Structure formats: structure tokens, C-alpha cells
Amino acid sequence: MLLTIFLLVGFLWGAPYFKFCEPYGNPHNPKGTYYLSLQWYFIKLNWYTYLGDWNIDISATLPLGFNGKKREYIMIITQKGVRTSIIDIN
Predict the structure, then answer these.
(1) What is the per-residue pLDDT across 5-18, written as a single tens digit (0 to 9) for each?
(2) At 88, is the secondary structure helix, strand, or coil?
(3) pLDDT digits over 23-71, tens only?
């Protein structure tokens, strides 16, 4: 029961981030389509196309102690390979 509540609250936390089959870019000439974008607490998943190439990116934002700084870990999977990145957020 508690696990179900924990999972549900995580998806409710990220509800404003949710996108399903939405084009982005110029309305007359879209750059691509968000097929699925989800957020669960501080973990984000995006599946989208950009200029005909598909991309899947997964990111997690974690705090670095109690000083308010955060670090975001990103992995992007594309048709051309896998890229990773780490970004410090002040």
C-alpha cells in the first residue's frame, strides 16, 4: 500500500511535465514531436524526434548536500549513439 502511494505521488509531482504526442517548434514548421515526456520526482524521461532523428533522454537531478547546489546526470540515447553529461546547478 505504501509503495503504491509513493509511486503515485511521484507521478503526481511531475504531472505538469507530462507531454504525449505534442509537436514543438514553429507551429507552421515543427522541429519535432514529443512522443512521451514523464517526470517522477526528480527523474525525467523524454522520448522525442528532432529533425527526423529519434532521441531518448533520461536525467536525474540530485542535491549536493544542504547548501542548495544540485547536480544533474543526463544520458541521451540516439540513432547515432549514447551521450552522457553531468551539469552542476548552483
Answers:
(1) 998 998 898 889 99
(2) strand
(3) 888 888 888 899 999 999 999 999 999 888 899 999 999 998 888 899 9
Nearest CA among 5, 4, 84, 9 for reference residue 40: 9
* Nearest C-alpha neighbor of 11 from the set 45, 39, 34, 30: 39
Q: pTM, whole model, 2 decimals?
A: 0.80
Residue 4 three-state SS: helix
For residue 78, give the C-alpha cell.
540516439
Of 33, 29, 34, nearest to 45 by C-alpha is 34
Each domain of the chain, given as residue ranges in start order, spans 2-89
Among the listed residues 14, 71, 75, the one whose alpha carbon sits nearest the alpha carbon of residue 41 = 14
Q: Write the CATH number of the domain with boundaries 2-89.
A: 3.30.1300
